[in-house]
Design brief:
The complex is a heterodimer of chains A (443) and B (267).
Chain A lengths: L1 H34 L17 E7 L6 H9 L11 H5 L3 H7 L3 E8 L5 H11 L6 E3 L6 H11 L4 E4 L5 E2 L3 H6 L7 E10 L6 H23 L11 E4 H6 L10 H11 L3 E12 L5 H28 L5 H11 L4 H17 L6 H15 L6 H11 L11 H25 L19
Parallel strand pairs in A: 1-2, 1-4, 2-3, 6-8
Antiparallel strand pairs in A: 4-7, 5-8, 6-7
Helix pairs in contact in A: 1-8, 1-13, 1-14, 1-15, 8-15, 10-11, 11-12, 11-16, 13-16
Chain B lengths: L1 E3 L5 E3 L9 E2 L5 H38 L9 E7 L2 E7 L7 H17 L8 H24 L7 H27 L6 H32 L5 H8 L1 H23 L7 E2 L2
Antiparallel strand pairs in B: 1-2, 3-6, 4-5
The chains are: A alpha/beta (443), B mainly alpha (267).
């Protein structure tokens, strides 16, 4: 029994140490963002020879949002492209359009939709020649599979990806694509901002969380030349690299995280463009949110199991990048570490071994501070919201206590699923996030 | 900032640069670090010097309040050494759960665990919280059902744990609050005021919670000791710490909104 108690105590101390490391990491990011030197992105570069771009939009039953994203993309400006004029001039002759269109093509990927998505895409394809849908019915479903098919037919040097619920701004494609003038850059990530913030407490909390994650976390990692993450949407990458590495892993639920690490370990850089803002729809329903974070956790942890070793032995990365990469890979494993530590604490409590109490207390406190607000601590979210110009919404911070256990539980479940996935090598199935939009916002 | 011009048109009086590269005007990383260390030294010293007094006052008030619901001669203030000083706490005879009470509690707890996750009008986040609290209570019920005689605590040991926890929370406040306030462009005396206020609030809140915990444990049994500690212990402290902090930051943000001279941009 004495040995068991010793192991429990050591584990609790180990967990506390892990959480302290994450707390320090987030504090360094926060301080860097407000007081450190900011690394400016390339958005002000003017160049007449920008790369050609293919915009991919994976879609599965997206009739509520499909028109919005297509209208937004058709309204974007990209030097050299004649998006506004071509549909009118060449709508009757699509083949002519394909040859003339030099810079941008839009490829919505209809992935086994059973609603009106297909009809909407056909309508836009007929009207706008630069819209060239890929219809997937017979192949296996999944975002990674859909992207691979579309990349094969895309002609752009750069692939820009948007999820179907996003509303891209007018200049965003140029903002994302311009960084590829730098030959070291393999991918870039823009900033995601919730569109439906005012719907409920959940959407407001998610808005705060996103703010902390992008305005501070991603920007600080960009400033410090660490590892900003390509997030799979509002992002871009070089087409030839992804083809060279064999495309996206069809069994991955977080193909974006996997791409980030594969690029870094091969010597490419991933940038963060804080200026490239794009609006999205966040889950309005707790059940949908539960499925979403469980899926993220499952996918991210699978990437952790697969990419940790290549990351650590990569000859292209500095020690700092490796440490940050390892912490980034481990971010969804912290819930598992915590839940296990909580069980250990409970066991120690009933065994009357609470002389370690200050240690347990410290663990609980540090984790609380670290985990309030999902993956960004409260001071990081407050700072980000402050920088964004938000005031009243900062007062919602204490309400993150309600999402603390919620996130903890579903991220923990996601970790367990990932372990089973790795052990049994079972195939994963893509679980699409529900859409809520009732009226078009771009009409 | 939108103002109306003479012709009655809405116009922006001031257009800021984009928020993407907005930064705070004051200080660098070194200055913030020094500020955090200085404030921690100041408040750490205050906590270290005053925690015996604070725990003594907590025990005194708790005894006074509990005297209304239980015989005063059963409540005893004791002391023990802690961090080379003394902490004060209350000792009293506690209560083990009876078989019937235990069984009823177990059934209710199980019902909560089964029903709450299925209720559609309760937000899932809140439901998860309740379910977790119920799960800890269930473990406690099972422990008392099978190993009641091996329960390792009494009120004195619980009081020791509670009071020592409280002292460590005060030290943590002395470190974490200045750390969280450091990046913001606010006068240092305001930061000292906010940290002091949170500490004072924590002493009062800790006293009120101690009274409630003691009442539950002595009147309704040790059965609830685990859920009280794990669910309503240090986790709840975080709520008011973050609550006061966020209110303050929100007020500062409101004051700075639209004031060009208060901001800098890294362009």
């Amino acid at each position: 029994m004495a040995l068991v108690i010793l192991i429990l105590k050591i584990y609790v101390c180990f967990s506390a140490l892990i959480m302290i490391v994450y707390t320090i990491r987030h504090f360094i990011f926060t301080l860097n963002r407000v007081a450190g030197e900011q690394r400016i992105y390339y958005q002000d570069i003017m160049d007449s020879e920008l790369p050609t771009v293919s915009v991919l939009v994976p879609m599965h039953n997206e009739e509520k949002v499909a028109r919005d994203i297509l209208n937004s993309l058709l309204g974007t400006s990209y030097p050299g492209a004649k998006l506004e004029i071509l549909p009118i001039m060449l709508a009757d002759n699509p083949n002519e359009t394909l040859e003339t269109l030099e810079n941008v093509e839009i490829i919505p990927i209809d992935d086994h939709s059973t609603d009106g998505t297909k009809k909407i895409l056909a309508e836009y394809a007929a009207k706008y020649p630069q819209v060239m849908p890929v219809y997937r019915q017979d192949q296996k479903r999944g975002k990674a599979r859909g992207l691979n098919d579309a990349i094969d037919m895309a002609r752009g040097d750069i692939i820009v990806v948007f999820d179907a619920d996003y509303i891209p701004g007018k200049g965003i494609i140029k903002d994302l694509a311009v960084c590829f003038k730098d030959p070291e850059v393999g991918a870039v990530m823009g900033r995601v901002i919730p569109l439906n913030t005012k719907h409920s407490l959940l959407t407001r909390l998610l808005d705060l969380e996103r703010s902390g994650g992008y305005q501070v976390d991603q920007q600080a990692r960009h400033n410090l030349k660490l590892m900003p993450q390509y997030g799979g949407t509002v992002g871009a990458f070089r087409r030839d690299i992804v083809i060279d590495i064999g495309g996206f892993n069809p069994n991955s639920l977080t193909e974006d995280t996997e791409l980030t690490f594969r690029l870094f370990t091969l010597g490419w850089k991933v940038l963060y463009a804080n200026r490239a803002e794009c609006y999205e729809e966040v889950p309005e329903d707790w059940n949908v949110r539960a499925r979403q974070i469980k899926r993220w956790s499952r996918g991210h942890n699978r990437v952790m199991f697969g990419q940790m070793w290549p990351l650590l032995k990569s000859k292209y990365l500095t020690g700092r990048e490796k440490i940050d990469g390892a912490l980034l890979l481990g971010v969804y494993a912290t819930s598992f570490i915590f839940v296990l530590a909580a069980f250990c604490s409970l066991a120690l409590f009933f065994l009357g071994e609470m002389e370690i109490f200050p240690g347990i207390l410290f663990l609980i406190m540090v984790i609380t501070y670290n985990a309030f607000g999902n993956f960004a601590p409260f001071y990081q979210i407050a700072t980000a919201s402050f920088l964004d110009g938000g005031a009243y919404r900062i007062r919602l911070l204490p309400l993150f206590i309600f999402t603390f256990f919620f996130n903890l539980w579903y991220v923990f479940l996601g970790f367990l699923y990932a372990v089973v996935d790795v052990v049994t090598r079972r195939k994963t199935r893509w679980d699409k996030t529900s859409r809520y939009r009732k009226t078009e916002v771009t009409s | 900032m939108v103002k109306e011009d003479r012709s009655g048109n809405d116009e922006k009086g001031l257009i800021f640069y984009h928020r993407a590269y907005r930064i705070f005007p004051s200080g660098g990383v070194r200055r913030h670090t020094i500020e955090i260390l200085l404030l921690f030294l100041l408040f750490g010293l205050i906590v270290y010097l005053l925690f015996p007094l604070a725990t003594r006052l907590t025990s005194y008030f708790s005894k006074q309040v509990l005297s209304y619901v239980m015989p005063p001669n059963t409540l005893q203030i004791i002391q023990k050494p802690f961090l080379f000083r003394h902490v004060y706490m209350i000792d009293r005879i506690g209560k083990f759960p009876g078989a019937f009470f235990l069984l009823i509690t177990l059934i209710i707890t199980l019902l909560i665990m089964i029903v709450v996750p299925r209720l559609k009008n309760i937000p899932k986040s809140f439901g998860t919280w309740i379910s977790l609290a119920a799960a800890i209570n269930m473990i406690s019920c099972l422990f008392f059902l099978f190993f009641s005689n091996r329960f390792p605590y009494d009120i004195r040991i619980f009081s020791e744990l509670y009071v020592e926890t409280q002292v460590i929370i005060w030290f943590l406040i002395a470190f974490i609050v200045p750390m969280a306030l450091a990046p913001f462009p606010v006068n240092i005396f305001l930061k000292i005021g906010v940290t002091g206020f949170i500490l004072a609030y924590s002493v009062i809140f800790g006293c009120a919670r101690y009274i409630i915990f003691l009442y539950i444990l002595t009147k309704h049994s040790y059965l609830f000791m685990a859920p009280l500690f794990f669910i309503f212990g240090p986790l709840v402290d975080s709520v008011y710490i973050i609550g006061i902090y966020s209110l303050f930051i929100s007020l500062v943000a409101t004051k700075m909104k639209g004031v060009m001279t208060k901001w800098r941009w890294s362009y």
